[in-house]
Amino acid sequence: MSLKKIFPGFAGILILFSISVVSSRAEELDAQKLLEQVDENLWADTKFISGRLIIDNGRKVRILTQDSWMEGVTRSYSHYKSPPREKGTKMLKIGGKLWMYTPRTDRKILIAGHLLRQSMMGSDLSYEDMMEDHKLSRAYAASLEGYEDMEGTRVAVLHLVAHDKKTTYQTRKAWINPENKTVLKEERFAKSGKKLKSILFKDYEKIEGRMFPRTMIFKDLLKENTQTTYKFDVIEFNVKIPARYFSQSILKR
After folding, report:
1. Cα dihedral sign for 165, 162, 48, 121?
2. How far apart are CA 28 and CA 31, in angstroms?
3. Exposed, middle or buried: residue 91 (CB in 10 Å: 0-12, 13-18, 19+)?
4. What CATH number does the domain containing 92 carry?
5. What's this model's pTM, rounded to 2 decimal places?
6. Nearest to residue 53, comparing CAs of 130, 160, 144, 166?
7. Are 44 and 238 in contact (CB under 8 A)?
8. Does any domain span residue 36?
9. For 76-127, what is each residue's pLDDT tens digit?
């Protein structure tokens, strides 16, 4: 006598279970594609941003204004406009190198080694965070951990593992809205597994056909009662950038 005759519903249960397993595996395979779609939404050949860094160290709040020009993921130039103490400060990233010019010293320095781990301008971002500005789908392998509810939205929780052992954050977690391909939250971890940073992405707006966050809130979890809010006041994609903006000569007074 066949198993199907003994347990009429058993075969159906097996089929449903098989479908469920296949579907689950398919979703996991889609995690990398979802990450690629997020990158496509955020990245352009060139980008201009004018914004404010609002640095709250728990005792006082400082606001820095800056203009930034970016080409792909390898070149960027930032010019700080205020407050007076930071006015005229410039930062230039080319490939894997980062230079900083300060008008107070009237000299440029190459930020490397242990200096990269220091706080950038007293914020919750490190200079390494500046260097980590790259496409996640190229630097990390993504897998689906599951789904969660965030502010009434069902989001996919992705676990990201770095391809390169030299990557600053070997693992990350990202909460992504699969409907519009936007990141709502991210956590960054040390090689030991210790949680180092958390980032919230807010105030998404459609700009030139892309969903882009107007606000990012960074928290250095090794500090207490601090946070840095990055407000993007002007965002332009595919802008023409003068060649001199990505030359070390731009760092001179």
Report:
1. negative
2. 5
3. buried
4. 2.50.20.10
5. 0.84
6. 130
7. yes
8. no
9. 999 999 999 999 999 999 988 899 999 988 899 999 888 888 999 899 999 8
Tell me which residue of 52, 112, 99 sits closest to 245, measured CA to CA.
99
Tokens of 77: 């130039």
Token duo for residue 2? 């066949």
Calculate mean pLDDT across residues 200-204: 96
Inside any domain, residue 165: yes
Residue 16, domain member (yes or no): no
Does any domain span residue 35?
no
212-218 long-range contacts, CB within 8 A, separation 24+: 212/41, 212/42, 213/182, 213/183, 218/123, 218/124, 218/125, 218/129
Q: For residues 144 and 157, what is the distance between their CA atoms, to the nearest angstrom?
A: 6
Looking at residue 218, what is its pLDDT?
97
Q: How many domains does the chain have?
A: 1
Burial of 192 (0-12, 13-18, 19+ CB in 10 A): exposed
Rounded CA separation 192/149 (Å): 28
What percent of the chain is predicted at pLDDT more than 70? 87
Is the pLDDT score of 138 beyond 50?
yes
User: CA-to-CA distance for 151 and 207, rounded, in angstroms?
Assistant: 23
* Listed residue (150, 187, 157) closest to 27, CA to CA: 157
